[in-house]
Amino acid sequence: MDLEIGLLGCGTVGAGVVSLVRRRAGKVADMTGSRPVVKTILVRNLDKNRGVTFEHERLTTRPDDILRDEDIQIVIETIGGIEPAKTYILEALRNGKHVVTANKDLIAVHGPEILRVAEENHVSVLFEAAVGGAIPLVGPLKENLTANEVTDLKGIINGTTNFILSEMTSRHIDFEEALAMAQELGYAESDPSSDVDGLDAARKLVILSSIAFQTEVHLTDIRIEGIRHVRAKDVRYADELGYVIKLLAVGRDHGGELTLAVRPTLIPKVHPLAHVSDAYNALYVRGDAAGDLMFFGRGAGSMPTASAVVGDVISLVRNLKLGYVASSPNGTLTAKPVVDREDDRYKYYFRLVVHDQPGVFASIAQLFGSAHASMETVLQKRVDGGCAEIVIVTHELSTTTARHLVDELQHLSHLQAVECVMPVEPVTE
Ligand SMILES: NC(=O)C1=CN([C@@H]2O[C@H](COP(=O)(O)OP(=O)(O)OC[C@H]3O[C@@H](n4cnc5c(N)ncnc54)[C@H](OP(=O)(O)O)[C@@H]3O)[C@@H](O)[C@H]2O)C=CC1
Ligand SMILES: N[C@@H](CC=O)C(=O)O
């Protein structure tokens, strides 16, 4: 028997979904007695080449051809963004259809409402593909690791920025060229500023930390810094000093208080996360019973993301056979305040541009000394226009001291700019 699917959107991810559903239909039919078939596909432009040939699938520009088709039991949403995806998903749920989505923008902001509507209508919403592309993260956190108090999430959860930083490091190309390649390869969002400015990783951190820490996390709870201000020279200096730069997402539950941040970070080359290159993602999870776990795999791209979407579809087909409806992943939520822990300690990387004059370095050293911020390494490079660049890696400082130093440096008469400040991840914790 055919189990009919409606697909909303057929771009990078949607086209992968069409191929993979076809490829696995026979196997699913053998397993469950139901053969998943994509019946109708919603797009904006019927004439566009999508890199996939359509067989029995019908393309339409009318959402009702899917949302009001009583034979369609599962709706897959790969449009992205908030509207019209939200309206379509809510209507599908209210019409009794199960939904699979890859849309982190939507789940991060409207996840609780969408899950509530699904529950009210006795249908499921699954969203494994919204975080980490092919890597199973939502499933393990909501199912396999529920026996744990999860205290730490830490990792690289944006493929585009990881690809850009990796290309800048290994092939010495500049930011714009690397971003254009990430777009060409289908890794970037339709508006790539959400990748580059850290929002995409922050949305994923909202989803992961809500599930892992059993609470409702909001995007505004997260300190977000992207990679736009990271220059090729920072990548080079980091390399010279024994580090690579990664956009790191960190969520920590300090006994009921959360800290949540996305920011570029120097990672020692010997650290396992330093070797996560290209569009790969990796996430460390620490649970009180499981200990440390690391998840690794392709975090973006057509088929890796389709793998997660179609995995959710197959779970639904199995559940339908068993007459089971997956409920909201969070169950009862505990309110947990999100705090800015000023006493957290890290080493810091500073890159300053100064007028190259005698005594400048002495005044910087004096300023660091009076803040009790000792320097571990210093590089000094002459640059154009009578200026010099000073790169300092400190010993561990509190966040308060690092911020105080940035403020105080602005008052130095020979300082041109504090161009880049990033924390340094310890080798191990
Ligand atoms: N790309 C990736 O690696 C990953 C993406 N995701 C998520 O998957 C989702 C899809 O991403 P991706 O495939 O890259 O996006 P694309 O931009 O490649 O595809 C979007 C598709 O949606 C269609 N669409 C857009 N607006 C409308 C509308 N108003 N009505 C009907 N159809 C519309 C487009 O139609 P048309 O082609 O006719 O313009 C296109 O087919 C997003 O939520 C993204 O965040 C998740 C993980 C990885
Ligand atoms: N733009 C995203 C796509 C996958 O979620 C990324 O680069 O990680």
From TrEMBL:
<keyword id="KW-0486">Methionine biosynthesis</keyword>
<keyword id="KW-0521">NADP</keyword>
<dbReference type="GO" id="GO:0050661">
    <property type="term" value="F:NADP binding"/>
</dbReference>
<dbReference type="Pfam" id="PF01842">
    <property type="entry name" value="ACT"/>
</dbReference>
<dbReference type="InterPro" id="IPR016204">
    <property type="entry name" value="HDH"/>
</dbReference>
<comment type="pathway">
    <text>Amino-acid biosynthesis; L-threonine biosynthesis; L-threonine from L-aspartate: step 3/5.</text>
</comment>
<protein>
    <recommendedName>
        <fullName>Homoserine dehydrogenase</fullName>
        <ecNumber>1.1.1.3</ecNumber>
    </recommendedName>
</protein>
<dbReference type="GO" id="GO:0009086">
    <property type="term" value="P:methionine biosynthetic process"/>
</dbReference>
<dbReference type="InterPro" id="IPR045865">
    <property type="entry name" value="ACT-like_dom_sf"/>
</dbReference>
<dbReference type="InterPro" id="IPR036291">
    <property type="entry name" value="NAD(P)-bd_dom_sf"/>
</dbReference>
<dbReference type="InterPro" id="IPR002912">
    <property type="entry name" value="ACT_dom"/>
</dbReference>
<feature type="binding site">
    <location>
        <begin position="8"/>
        <end position="15"/>
    </location>
    <ligand>
        <name>NADP(+)</name>
    </ligand>
</feature>
<keyword id="KW-0560">Oxidoreductase</keyword>
<feature type="active site" description="Proton donor">
    <location>
        <position position="204"/>
    </location>
</feature>
<feature type="binding site">
    <location>
        <position position="104"/>
    </location>
    <ligand>
        <name>NADPH</name>
    </ligand>
</feature>
<keyword id="KW-0520">NAD</keyword>
<dbReference type="GO" id="GO:0046872">
    <property type="term" value="F:metal ion binding"/>
</dbReference>
<feature type="binding site">
    <location>
        <position position="189"/>
    </location>
    <ligand>
        <name>L-homoserine</name>
    </ligand>
</feature>
<keyword id="KW-0791">Threonine biosynthesis</keyword>
<dbReference type="Pfam" id="PF00742">
    <property type="entry name" value="Homoserine_dh"/>
</dbReference>
<comment type="pathway">
    <text>Amino-acid biosynthesis; L-methionine biosynthesis via de novo pathway; L-homoserine from L-aspartate: step 3/3.</text>
</comment>
<keyword id="KW-0479">Metal-binding</keyword>
<dbReference type="InterPro" id="IPR019811">
    <property type="entry name" value="HDH_CS"/>
</dbReference>
<keyword id="KW-0915">Sodium</keyword>
<dbReference type="InterPro" id="IPR005106">
    <property type="entry name" value="Asp/hSer_DH_NAD-bd"/>
</dbReference>
<keyword id="KW-0028">Amino-acid biosynthesis</keyword>
<dbReference type="GO" id="GO:0004412">
    <property type="term" value="F:homoserine dehydrogenase activity"/>
</dbReference>
<dbReference type="InterPro" id="IPR001342">
    <property type="entry name" value="HDH_cat"/>
</dbReference>
<dbReference type="Pfam" id="PF03447">
    <property type="entry name" value="NAD_binding_3"/>
</dbReference>
<dbReference type="GO" id="GO:0009088">
    <property type="term" value="P:threonine biosynthetic process"/>
</dbReference>
<comment type="similarity">
    <text>Belongs to the homoserine dehydrogenase family.</text>
</comment>
